[in-house]
């Protein structure tokens, strides 16, 4: 059995090494057009920022180490230029010598990855992209010169990481994002703290902004402004690398990626595809999606090796979980966000909470902004997002696992999570989300969302302390502190009441109290904190 | 409706406050024999150590704050001395005035907690216990005097926390534990690093040791040794506080706690019980168990309020998840451990791995020792344990959630967990556990456990580097580095081969390679690291 793998990073190399473990006798050839294989592409921004000091740390394996350990024939700077499915051969160009040769295969694994999307803007060729070690080398070389300012075009995960790291090097950094928020996998009120944190650390964040041209030394926006930019980094997204597959007549999917079945097999039974180039099946709808994440690339690479070795395997539909560090802040998300649910017309209910990362009486606790989306018909968890200084990745991982296990949002109330004061609370943030969802589901709680407040009917009652109210109030709110509400409820005008506190907890108590007194009351979900974040997002 | 709650911490107060939110008109009386309610009992060790600086931080609520916010009649230093079920009254002694009075109820909630187990040892009355704020006050007062040495009797979670905190104050601390390991919820090879870490920080750890008497200034062990002990802290476990329930004729369960049904109702339909005093149903077997953990106490308190308010509720069976900080180390566990599975004759398979807390190329990664136990018949996850400097609580929470969701151990391979270099790896430790389990399940991997190595048939082959082998080797092992194994396999004697590396990963590759060459080979599960930890545990 001879297996050729096209692409020597993540999915491709996972397939090759796993296949060797399953089959000591297979002939395995990895063809990589770049100069490196098995490098830490997620580490590239941190190498530029200096957090990862040694370039060698990025190179997890070399062709030599892979030959020694796995007897894999790894050829870097060898580009496959054509697949001949009829003869089961590939045509390879050795980029060092220029020589072209043929290689036959019994099974072919495509892991060509994705290429950066490059907009049609004059001067854009001056912009760097950051996909591989050679890209990082070029940027590092540029940074070694007299570079004082940088513009990062694109405020997604990589763009935000790049902006942070260039800022850590002391550059004057502007992040330019076409959308009115950074990190579009998050909803706007969840992304607002990320933009704030970038600004706190001196990164200029230009939202709703678009590059018009990229002359030497600057980036000019479509609104006429010019931003200083000795260095320009472009990260507005990637497109699946499908040219080889397309030219070979393999089916592409509706999203423009390589179409694969549940065993990652393409429309040619001898050819598999994994990683950013291959389409995934969405866990919620079963539809084709593109999910350029390392976890799935590695997982599917391993799975393809199993399939080639004759095992019964089946890829799970993808939920998509991602996390990003933004200076000392963490933002993470899993599943669908509210924007996407709304656009798809999928029924959902949102909850926002701001629990402590661990017990408040133990030093170092900070608030986590946590949002959970669920289907009100069956309480299925549709997605979650979290932002905070600590414990964010843990809570998103727990919810992602709950989704994989088919737990409902109410089941989160019953999770037994590890509690000691440095790690969590007896009622963990995830449990709290379950309590809130349960209350909404059985009608105990009624909430209004931050974006529904404008023009909502009713008297707005702030149940925080007078000091909190004085510091920052929602316009038009009457202030009656929760602990006085029982005695002073008669002061409230007739009709519907909208109560709110800082994060939603006292508001819930107030809503229950007023309901118990026969009043119609709803609680502002997530309290002032979520409202203010949402407002800051929409004002930006 | 008048509801009396006996016990004003955790479960009791959760029941009282939740009930108020559900019923504005109920009369709610909380009777607490101690001087405080709603205090942070899990924070007490950290108050003694000075990490929590202010005593007030421990007092989360006061009778006054609970009256103002929830209109709950909270009476501290009021001890219920008798329950009269026929008349639905309780007899209460006001410990301040000595006055005794009666209080009627429609529903009664028992949340009396547990009391420390005190062994019958001369002088033991000199030992402090640490269950409430008054205990902490007494110890703090003692520590304000000339206290230089302390003995902590009992190496469970609280004992370890107490030892750490007393050591942090600069005391000469000895931890005395009857078992041959600390933290008995962990298996010995997982607990060994905890004892090591305590010793590294200057705590003397005496395992297999028992106090014989506690004279002034010391603790004498049964082996005749005397340990300096200006202060003695006793934490060898707790017993459910059941005297009231028993005297009232309520059914106790097989473990000596108050028997309750799935709605936390006792054998008297008007009386509920929650917290450390009530028995729980074990998630694996359905048997009655005692689980003195805050998460369940709070959860069940809330559930009882729902039940009293007429809602359909049902407590989930308990998995038991716990975590402890030991200086800069974290140890956590969920579900059953190997000792318990073996003792119960439950079929299981163990896996040990030592993945990085996050991507190795990003600074600050450390190894996590992770153990997962599963049922080889259906791959049900039975339990997990983890020890390490970072990311331990996250992985145990994820596995606890997977257990709650009914995922198999192989399903862990497919979890989409949040990955960026500071948080994890593209193949997260939990994914790795899934890969290993999958390999064991389908026969790809074959392992031998650390405790099976002695006397196991076969040639032991260390596939680590010569430098690693020279530094620390298992007696009798031949050293052939993995990258030379393919070429040098012929050097190995005939017969069965037992391969091992440092943590199990290279060993797996070696086992696959040798199997591919037609040899019979097994891999030492968890590698040298697990073997050494197990050996250190059994040698102690």
Automatic annotation (TrEMBL), chains A, B:
Keywords: FAD, Flavoprotein, Oxidoreductase, Redox-active center. It holds the Pfam family Pyr_redox_2. InterPro entries: FAD-bd_OxRdtase (IPR050260), FAD/NAD-bd_sf (IPR036188), FAD/NAD-binding_dom (IPR023753), FAD/NAD-linked_Rdtase_dimer_sf (IPR016156), Pyr_nucl-diS_OxRdtase_dimer (IPR004099), Rhodanese-like_dom (IPR001763), Rhodanese-like_dom_sf (IPR036873). This is FAD-dependent oxidoreductase. Its cofactor is FAD. GO terms for molecular function: oxidoreductase activity. SUPFAM superfamilies: FAD/NAD(P)-binding domain, FAD/NAD-linked reductases, dimerisation (C-terminal) domain, Rhodanese/Cell cycle control phosphatase. Belongs to the class-III pyridine nucleotide-disulfide oxidoreductase family. Residues 454-540 form the Rhodanese domain. The keyword Flavoprotein applies.
